[in-house]
Amino acid sequence: MLRRNYYRDKPAEYGVMHPKPEIRLFRRDRVKFIDRSTHAKLVYGGKCGWVKGYLEHYNITELKEWYEKNLRYARACAEDDFAKGKRVGFRHFAELPNLFFRRYILWRGFMHGVPGLVFSAMPVFFRLVHYSIMWELQSNNCKEKLNRQ
């Protein structure tokens, strides 16, 4: 079913907050959960159908909540990715303007006015923090290796 996101009791129809598909009804014997620091990931090995209507998601009442949540998630994701051996480089940072362009222009985030601008910029901010923390972890790891030699 589609999850409809709300900000201040108004549904978001465009941009980052547009309705997104969510798997909510499934056979337990065909699903696998992959545990992560932020959200568990659901992997389903069967056919998916659609339930009409929306899952109404009143997640954001204040931008401060979303900002703080993004900081926590960025740190947790960076630490998970670093532990898995993933690394970040200049290319990752260079993709950030394109990420904003896709969300604000192509996904029509501008249709929501200032909230659309903010919500289009927030994923860019999340990735900037995520990549910065990963870069810092990589740098610290390199310094530790040099100090051990």
What can you see in these coordinates?
The protein is of the alpha+beta class and 149 residues long. It is globular. It is built from four helices and six strands; from the N terminus they run ββββββαααα. Strands 1, 2, 3 and 6 form a four-stranded mixed sheet that branches. A hairpin with a 2-residue loop joins strand 1 and strand 2. The model has no long low-confidence stretch (mean pLDDT 85). The termini are far apart.
Topology:
Elements: E1 2-7, E2 10-11, E3 20-21, E4 31-34, E5 41-44, E6 54-60, H1 63-83, H2 90-94, H3 96-106, H4 114-148
Parallel strand pairs: 1-6
Antiparallel strand pairs: 1-2, 1-3, 4-5
N- to C-terminal distance: 55 Å
Rounded average pLDDT = 85
Separate helix tally: 4
The chain-level structural class is: alpha+beta
- Rg over CA atoms, rounded to whole Å, is 18 Å
How would a crystallographer describe the biggest sheet?
4 strands, mixed
Helix content: 40-55%
Number of strands: 6
Shape: globular
Beta strand %: 15-25%
Low-confidence stretches: none
Element-level helix/strand string? EEEEEEHHHH
List keywords for this structure.
single chain, two-stranded antiparallel ribbon, 4-stranded mixed β-sheet, 6 strands, 17% strand, 149 residues
Compact description:
The chain is 48% helix and 17% strand. With 149 residues, the chain is an alpha+beta fold.
